[in-house]
Design goal:
The protein is of the alpha+beta class. Helices cover about 20% and strands about 35% of the residues. Helix 2 runs antiparallel to helix 3.
């Protein structure tokens, strides 16, 4: 499975869907994402540690790619999504767009903040929650985030049922 990366100055965020399933009676799937962080292609987490940073999209929540594309289209400053266990993602334009809507330039900077509150140092990743204080903030152009979201969307739907 391909990994999706986006970053600036050597720092890259990697979000890869790793599993998908449907709960009984639900129309939308649940997805599990793995989140990694790299600097100049070197993982900042060991393999053992990185496997524990997972985030679950429940059936009633939008796909992460849909969330990103909606933020880029609306350019509103208060956009966040909560994934379980305890991963919150906030995304907004770097500067407030104010009352001037219309077509945003492709080079408009947006940032994404990923806060991981799960107890990633526990023996089992789904034990008690604790705020790790790990907050990743990456900035890229609107165009780069759009490309990132479209690639992620392909990965989110490219599962054999």
């Amino acid at each position: 499975m391909a990994h999706i990366r986006n970053g600036k100055k050597g720092l890259e965020l990697d979000i890869a869907p790793i599993s998908r399933w449907f709960n009984e009676g639900e129309q939308e799937p649940c997805l599990e994402y793995e989140i990694g962080l790299y600097y100049n292609d070197i993982p900042l987490f060991s393999d053992e540690f990185a496997e524990k940073i997972v985030a679950l999209k429940e059936a009633q929540d939008p796909h992460l790619s849909t969330f990103i594309l909606n933020v880029l289209a609306n350019a509103e400053a208060d956009n966040w999504i909560m994934l379980e266990p305890k991963v919150s993602i906030f995304m907004a334009p770097r500067t407030a767009m104010g009352c001037c809507r219309g077509e945003l330039p492709s080079q408009t900077p947006f940032f994404m903040e990923v806060k991981i509150d799960q107890n990633i140092l526990a023996d089992k990743p789904y034990t008690e929650y604790s705020d790790t204080g790990l907050c990743l903030r990456l900035e890229a152009t609107r165009e780069a985030w759009g490309d990132f979201a479209r690639k992620l969307e392909v990965e989110e739907t490219d599962f054999e049922d």
